């Protein structure tokens, strides 16, 4: 779902000016982002996120996960260098001058890398989150590894680092829909193309980053939409279909995505797909 850690792969996939970035960001924040709320809640409950938490959110996007942590009293810092439009939406949600903000602690948003958020006056982070699920784009685990390499030095010793990924394909109804991305993408192109999630994706990333696994879990995150049009907009906002759009065109992707969603459409017109996501808790050395 996809911000910072897949930006390189999307660029290689040949994103074009045909995509309205502002509309895409709004679709993400208004339609798709909420699908991962059960994942955020499960992690925050397990780690007892609260006023003593200093959280660094990687690829924070439009900031819903940060808002939920801030509502628990945590001091939150979000970094994202892939979508200025999403970060603008995060500022509306989180910054003190934004209407309706209920952040319980210090809140910072940085359009850049974790190093851009480094500040000698800021205490080390107690929690680092990378909530964008990996395991669906070829090469996304490498992108996450690079992101962690620049982020973990900013955390205190033994700090929790949370990685997220798609669950087993057979437990994710959306898998059949995501296969449209592979079918339409250029077969000669690998980076940016969808692939099935692998069982040890998260553990392998943690190992390469020098982190010590300290628990994991699975969370049901069903994707529910008011209608097929909303489902198409929400899924396109993840960026998982960008390579397909580049290889064909928007109309073709919309058509095949709509057809793939048909088995998941209910009698009342809503679209519902059950999914399971994994998270791994690791610790900094």
From TrEMBL:
One GO biological process this protein is involved in is: methylation
What is the protein name given in its UniProt record?
A: SAM-dependent methyltransferase
What SUPFAM superfamilies would the database entry show?
S-adenosyl-L-methionine-dependent methyltransferases (SSF53335)
> Region entry Disordered: which residue ranges?
1-21
Alphabetically ordered keywords of this record? Methyltransferase, Transferase
Please name the GO terms that the record assigns under molecular function: methyltransferase activity
Please verify whether the record's keywords include Transferase. Answer: yes
Asked whether the UniProt record includes Methyltransferase among its keywords, one would answer yes
Q: Which Gene3D superfamilies match?
A: Vaccinia Virus protein VP39 (3.40.50.150)
């Amino acid at each position: 779902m996809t911000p910072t850690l897949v930006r390189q792969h999307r660029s290689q996939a040949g994103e074009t000016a045909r995509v309205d970035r502002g509309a895409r960001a709004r679709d993400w924040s208004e339609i798709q982002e909420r699908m991962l709320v059960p994942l955020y809640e499960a992690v925050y409950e397990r780690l007892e996120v609260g006023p003593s938490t200093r959280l660094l959110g990687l690829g924070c996007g439009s900031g819903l996960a940060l808002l939920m942590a801030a509502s628990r009293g945590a001091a939150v810092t979000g970094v994202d260098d892939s979508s200025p439009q999403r970060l603008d939406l995060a500022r509306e949600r989180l910054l003190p001058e934004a209407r309706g903000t209920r952040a319980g602690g210090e809140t910072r948003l940085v359009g850049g890398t974790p190093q851009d958020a480094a500040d000698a006056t800021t205490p080390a982070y107690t929690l680092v989150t990378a909530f964008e699920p990996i395991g669906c784009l070829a090469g996304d685990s490498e992108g996450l590894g690079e992101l962690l390499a620049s982020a973990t030095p900013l955390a205190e010793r033994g700090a929790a680092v949370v990685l997220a990924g798609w669950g087993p394909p057979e437990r994710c109804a959306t898998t059949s829909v995501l296969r449209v991305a592979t079918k339409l993408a250029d077969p000669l192109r690998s980076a940016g193309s969808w692939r099935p999630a692998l069982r040890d994706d998260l553990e392998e990333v943690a190992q390469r980053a020098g982190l010590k696994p300290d628990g994991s879990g699975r969370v049901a995150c069903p994707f529910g939409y008011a209608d097929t049009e909303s489902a198409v907009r929400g899924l396109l906002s993840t960026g998982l279909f960008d390579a397909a759009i580049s290889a064909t065109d928007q109309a073709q992707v919309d058509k095949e995505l709509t057809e793939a969603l048909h088995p998941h459409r209910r009698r009342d017109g809503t679209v519902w797909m059950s999914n399971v996501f994994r998270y791994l808790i690791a610790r900094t050395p």
